[in-house]
Amino acid sequence: MLIHLSCSHLFASVHSSGFYSFLSRSRPISCYRSLTVCQNASSVSHGQPARSSEPTVCGNDPTASLVTHSPPTSAYLHLPFCRKRCYYCDFPVIALGTSGPSPDDDPRISNYAQLLCKEIESTPSYMEPLPLQTVFFGGGTPSLTPPRTLRIIIQTLSSKFGLMPDVEMSMEIDPGTFDANSLRQFIQLGVNRLSLGVQAFQDEALRLCGRSHGLKEVYEAIDIIRASNVENWSLDLISSLPHQTAEDWKKNLEQAIQAQPSHISVYDLQIEEGTKFGNVYQAGEFPLPSEYKSAELYRMAHEMLTGSGYVHYEISNYCKEGFECKHNLTYWKNQPYYGFGLGSTSYVGGVRFTRPRRMRKYAEFIEGLADGESENGLVLEHNDDDALRKERAMDIVMLSLRLARGLDIDCFAREFGWSLVLEICRAFQPYVESGHVTPLDEERRVVNVEEFLKFCSTENGRESHFLARKCGLIKFFRLSDPDGFLLSNEIISTAFKEYPLALTIGSAAAT
Question: What is the separation, in whole angstroms, between the first and last Cα of the chain?
């Protein structure tokens, strides 16, 4: 069984084998910025929550294009400073320590903020820029940033692109790194969505993870948030930690539910090479839980959270109705976005580009960008060759199936043709028969296996197009919840391993 639970670094490209494999990561989707991708390689309020229906990669507009060349309306900003590096973390962070200057006076933070603002100001405009609809401050621990420094960054962002009046502005915050006064100042600057990195409700578990806070700070942080009247906030938990028992995990979920956040993210621990955990632990071996036990923890989370009124709208994310993270939906819908800061990734003009992960190289990059000499600036011309189209098709299937809504077949076929849809359906056939993949009609009713097999038996894309469109046979594919989500790695990789998109990908009219 291949378990995929978490949501950051959405995927690693495995172009040589013709498919993508998911990476289970113990950080939220905002960390998609850290994906190491070369140029031209295709590979994340006080009550202003998203109120739209469940999303698809194409959005809810049936005429929407799968690949948009419009300017991004989302921006991720990486604030890399932490008090210490957690033992599971392989993200580009800078540990400030506990004995140096306070964050308010630390020149490392102010100097980095200057670089970040210079990057924003020097970023080439892609077409006519549009005001930003979502902004996400991730890290690192963004709540260590002095409010006066954050003000300068927000002003720079607003001057360059503009901000919509109802912009969703999210910030990751860690217990023990903010108080009521600093949180109030963040809110006054426009932050209206908070993501609290709790991870566990046991002191020993937090200590084993190398977290800089204890349980006392967790409860204090929750109290501060609830007193601030911020309605739109998320709480993060990590499952499959060292020595974690089912009873521990149940208590974590109970405490999270009791805190009453509008959103809960549940990530499975991933052991990364080069981290402290990577040096001492092997995935699936004691003291880490087995793959089977990790799956049981995932099922427990699904049962308890959905039973408490949370909607399981994405593999690793649950929310109260209407409180999906709009910024993260940008990634899952494969829409363009800006990324600014150390190790961050942009997706502009159909191309992803990642900045250097080391400070010296990042500073050199920014100086070159400001002087117009950097060869690694944003790629503004979309190269729509066949290889990129194939990679994009893989992206779209993978990203769509993270969502409860699933893959919109019509939308996908308009870009890539019904012949490819038919090949993917045939690859999914064993999982439809086992109940891990669910085909749905245009009314989102389950298509029975016999009707699905009839669709798979069509001889070509034109015939499958007729059955799907004229007979309303298949409109969506989604993974079953929770068992299909648990097998997402295997299901996706099988589709593109068995059918590595060797066929010509063209328009629906051509197939």
Answer: 35
Confidence (pTM): 0.85
Tens of pLDDT, residues 405-458:
999 988 888 888 888 888 888 889 999 999 999 999 888 899 889 888 887 776
Q: What is the DSSP string of 317-374?
A: EEESTT---HHHHHHHTT--BEEESTT-EEEETTEEEE--SSHHHHHHHHHHHHTT--
Partnered with residue 11 across adjacent β-strands are 22
When computed from its CA atoms, the radius of gyration of the chain, rounded to whole angstroms, is: 22
In the chain, the amino acid numbered 334 is N
Helices (H) and strands (E) in the chain, counts: 17, 18
Residues 444-495: tens digit of each pLDDT: 899 889 888 887 776 655 555 555 554 457 889 999 999 999 999 889 887 7
Closest CA to 19 of 271, 393, 454, 354: 393
Q: Which two tokens stand for residue 25?
A: 């990561």
At which residue do the structure tokens 């402290």 appear? 276
Q: Is 376 exposed, middle or buried (0-12, 13-18, 19+ CB in 10 A)?
A: middle
Return the structure tokens found at 460: 């070509």
Identify which of 17-26, 54-63, 156-165 has the greatest average pLDDT.
156-165
The helix (run of H) or strand (run of E) holding residue 173 is: strand 163-173
By CB neighbour count within 10 A (0-12 exposed, 13-18 middle, 19+ buried), where does 205 fall? Answer: buried
Task: Give the CA count within 13 Å in the CB-facing half-sphere of 171.
Answer: 27
Nearest-angstrom CA–CA distance, 279 and 239: 19
- Cα–Cα distance measured from residue 306 to residue 294, given in angstroms and rounded to the nearest whole number: 18
CB-CB contact of 438 with 474 (8 Å): no
Give the residue among 117, 216, 123, 209 at the shortest CA–CA distance from 175.
Answer: 216
Task: Determine the Cα–Cα distance for residues 116 and 370; give it in Å rounded to an integer.
Answer: 11
For residues 432 and 430, give the distance between their C-alpha atoms in angstroms, rounded to a whole number. 6
pLDDT of 53 reads: 36
Does the bond joining 339 to the residue before it have cis omega, within 30 degrees of 0? Answer: no
Q: Are 215 and 202 in contact (CB under 8 A)?
A: yes
